[in-house]
Amino acid sequence: MAGKTDMERLGLFQEMGYTTIGDRYVGGGNKSFNVSAHKNKQMLPGGSKTRSSNQVGYFDSKFNRVLEGEAYSDPVKRRRQERIQNSKKNIGKAFLPSNGDKKPSGNGNHYGTFSGPVSAFSPVKKGGKQYKSPGKNVITNPGKIGTGYGFVGLTLGKGYTYSSNHFDKGKELRVRELDEHKKAMKGGSFKLNMHPKSYFDGNPYVNDKPLPPVKKQPSVKKDFKPFKPSSPAKKIAGSKAGTFDPYPSHSEDPYRIKVIKKGPPSMNSSGKIFMPSPGPKSAPTNSIVTQNVIRRINRNNFMVAQSSYS
């Protein structure tokens, strides 16, 4: 056969033959598939059935037990016996898993630590003396208005006498009691080193070493004067009573006319005191409006003028 070989065309030594070469073409619609499915009578399964407490749907018409006439068995008792038998196989105690990590709930909390809470850091207040009310303040009548306000010895009753009271009397008594207590002690507190201690110290503020002796400072007695309240505020007025400094004295005014002291009155040659002539005196004057009337009407023509005006 002239032309390319099978190796050159397909890469095979020999091309295999085809079984359908020369067959008649049959279309896709003419092929028959499962012809017996739509001929003669077919099997009718009866449809699906729902599950119920009846025997319907099962092959057997009666429910058959696996075991008949067996003895009664209590499942709770059986499980208890199995648990006892399995517990006997344990070599030691029952396995208990360790707890998970503990998370602190906030600052200052000792939950989850090795030693637990430290009593020295406890915020609980120590029990002290019962609170005693200081009582009400002294209630007095309002101040009296009038002279003598703020001065001693002007009231109906007698004045209060001064009684001295040292300011640090309570502190001195406490220091004296503490010194007497330390003198009565022969040594420090007894501590046994063999006693086991916790992982951390109970109180970090405790010091085993004794404290140095307290240095006593020389007491200086001070002369305390009784407290005298200040006088009430004064209103400023012409007397200048409310000022810090007294009102200064009035200095001489250089522009003021100096008053010269006069001697005895001078006398004239006749021996009489000189009296100056008096000045001009005031006199009644007529109005300017009536000047024209006075000039026109006089004693000579007043009768003629009166008849003409009437």
Q: Please state roughly what percent of the residues sit in beta strands, choosing from under 5%, 5-15%, 15-25%, 25-35%, 35-45% or over 45%.
A: under 5%
Mean pLDDT: 76
Number of extended strands: 0
Q: Helical percent range? A: 10-25%
- Rough shape? elongated
Sheet with the most strands, sense and barrel status: none
Termini, distance in Å? 188 Å
Q: How many helices in DSSP terms?
A: 5
Radius of gyration: 70 Å
Q: So what's the oligomer here?
A: single chain
Structural class: mainly alpha
Order of helices and strands: HHHHH
List low-confidence stretches: none
Verbal overview:
The chain has helices at 6-9, 75-88, 169-184, 291-296, 302-309. With 310 residues, it is mainly α. It starts with 5 loop residues before the first helix and ends with a helix.
Short recap of the structure:
By secondary structure, the chain is mainly α. Helices cover 15% and strands 0% of the residues. The mean pLDDT is 76.
SSE map:
Blueprint: H1 6-9, H2 75-88, H3 169-184, H4 291-296, H5 302-309
What keywords describe this structure?
310 residues; mainly alpha; 15% helix; elongated
